[in-house]
Task: structure prediction
Amino acid sequence: MKRTRGAALKWFVAWLAMWASHAAFGLDWDALDDEQRSLLAPYQSQWSSYSAEQQERIAAGAGRWSQLQPEEKRTLHDRYSRWKQLTPERKQLMIDRFKEFRALRPDQQKRLRDRMQEFRRLPPARQQELRERFRSLSPEERARAFDRMRQRGDGAKPRGPRGQNRRGHN
Result:
C-alpha cells in the first residue's frame, strides 16, 4: 500500500511539475504533432514570442481545424478572408457586438439566434425590404422598436441613426 501511494505521489508531483513548467513556458514547437506543425508552419519563427496561453489556444485551434470537413474549412476560410478585409473600426464594432451578445442570458441568445435564422430564411427581396424599412426609421422610432423587443425579452440594444451604435460605428 505504501509503495503504491508513494508511486502515485511521485507521479502526481512529476505531472504537477510538468504542468507548471508547461504553463509558465508554453508549448515547445517540437511538442506539436506533425499536422499542427504543418498547419502552423507560417508562424514557427514567431512561436516562441507567443504567450503560453496564446500557444495553447493556437494549438487547440489547429487541432480543431484538422477535424473539420472540407466544406467547413472552406466556409471558415471565406469568413477569415472577409474578416481580414474589414477596417479596424468595423472589426472592433463586431467584437463589441459579440461581447454584448455573450453577456445576454442563454434564453435571450437563443431567441436572437432563432430570429436571425427566421430572417435568413426569408427571400432576399423581403430581407432587403426589412433592412430598408429599418434604415428609414428615425432614431426615436428605432429606440421604441428596441424597447418593444426588449420588453418581449429579445435583448436588443438601441442603435443610433443609420444603424450606428452610440459611438457612431455601423
The CA atoms of residues 2 and 8 lie 10 Å apart. Confidence is low (pLDDT under 50) at residues 160-170.
